[in-house]
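Please decode residue identities from the backbone states below.
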């Protein structure tokens, strides 16, 4: 019974940051208009979200090792809940930047510590559970985006929408925090450490996987509109196809990993994602591009969860140091990947950039499937 409650509470922990961060996306145009931001300044401010996440992850890992996961996760919830209404009302570039930095720090710290908890809960269960945990982040993001869009469409203010989401986060936390883990790591395991050994390879695989996800978020619609000639009103459906496919694949991912084993699951996932990029890039058809984006989502879905499980089982570093290192490298892929895609597209073409991403995913399939930590 205790194990079941811990598993449910861990799913809730993954749901929370997805639900909270999804609130910000529909609020971006409101913040831009309220503060009178141009595109360049908005782009700079948006970096604060990722910067806050990257800075908080190593610190969150150290605090979780010294204090246990539960206190750190509760602190991150407070940061998210307090910053959501600030993001809905801040009217100066400085105010928005600071709010995004703190909000991003809360999201990043929660992302790091919930994975530390998930590794422990998965180990105790004796079976693969990580894909299912990560699925709840995606479910939270879809739920949060849909809720805020519905509220804003019905005439609610940005502040009211943010308060509704913040209330939802508080309610979910109140119902699950009791079963978040509270044990501490040995003192020698509670300090920051650079990734080493197999953790570097695991982090590199996560970097490329997150790079592919970031490319879908930032460039899929641009590719459909500028290269395939799809109308702007319909170009966003590519990311929707990717996101829904990834969420569904993660919901069933644990059974796939249990059946195939982690090596074959990563090999199949990397090859599927590679094929999806190639299909969407080389076949001049909107329907085929949608199918390709869905394949990218299905292929990438279980690679990162498997890598986190491996990071928790390897013996080169303590999990309390390895998980923050892997999480940070993954987030670096989200931040740097889309920028690299843009650089390549500027000098060659977006099609070339997507094919390079496909080649990197093929490397992930081979390298990731050969990782051994036991």
């Amino acid at each position: 019974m205790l194990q079941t409650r811990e598993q449910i509470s861990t799913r809730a922990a993954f749901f929370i940051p997805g639900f909270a961060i999804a609130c910000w996306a529909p609020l971006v145009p409101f913040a831009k208009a309220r503060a009178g931001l141009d595109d360049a300044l908005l782009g700079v401010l948006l970096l604060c979200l990722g910067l806050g996440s990257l800075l908080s992850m190593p610190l969150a890992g150290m605090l979780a090792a010294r204090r246990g996961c539960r206190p750190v996760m509760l602190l991150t919830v407070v940061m998210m809940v307090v910053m959501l209404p600030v993001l809905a009302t801040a009217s100066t570039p400085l105010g928005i930047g600071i709010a995004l930095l703190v909000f991003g720090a809360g999201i990043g710290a929660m992302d790091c510590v919930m994975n530390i908890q998930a590794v422990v809960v998965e180990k105790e269960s004796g079976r693969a559970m990580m894909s299912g945990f990560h699925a709840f982040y995606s479910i939270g993001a879809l739920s949060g985006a849909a809720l805020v869009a519905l509220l804003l469409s019905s005439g609610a203010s940005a502040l009211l929408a943010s308060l509704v989401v913040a209330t939802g986060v508080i309610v979910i936390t109140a119902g699950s925090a009791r079963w978040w883990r509270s044990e501490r790591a040995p003192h020698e395991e509670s300090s920051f450490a650079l990734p080493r050994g197999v953790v570097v390879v695991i982090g590199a695989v996560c970097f490329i996987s997150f790079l592919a996800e970031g490319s879908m978020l930032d460039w899929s619609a641009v590719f459909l509109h500028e290269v395939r000639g799809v109308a702007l009103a319909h170009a966003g459906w590519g990311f929707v196809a990717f996101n829904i496919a990834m969420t569904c694949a993660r919901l069933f991912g644990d059974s796939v990993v249990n059946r195939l084993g982690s090596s074959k699951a990563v090999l199949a996932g990397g090859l599927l994602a590679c094929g999806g990029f190639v299909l969407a890039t080389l076949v001049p058809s909107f329907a085929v591009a949608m199918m390709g984006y869905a394949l990218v989502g299905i292929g990438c879905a279980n690679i990162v969860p498997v890598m986190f499980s491996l990071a928790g089982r390897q013996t080169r570093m303590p999990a309390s140091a390895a998980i923050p290192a892997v999480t940070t490298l993954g987030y670096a892929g989200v931040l740097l990947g889309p920028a690299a895609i843009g650089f390549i597209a500027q000098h060659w073409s977006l099609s070339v950039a997507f094919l390079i991403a496909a080649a990197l995913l093929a490397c992930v399939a081979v390298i990731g499937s050969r990782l051994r930590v036991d």
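Observation: Residues 100 and 316 are 35 Å apart (CA to CA).
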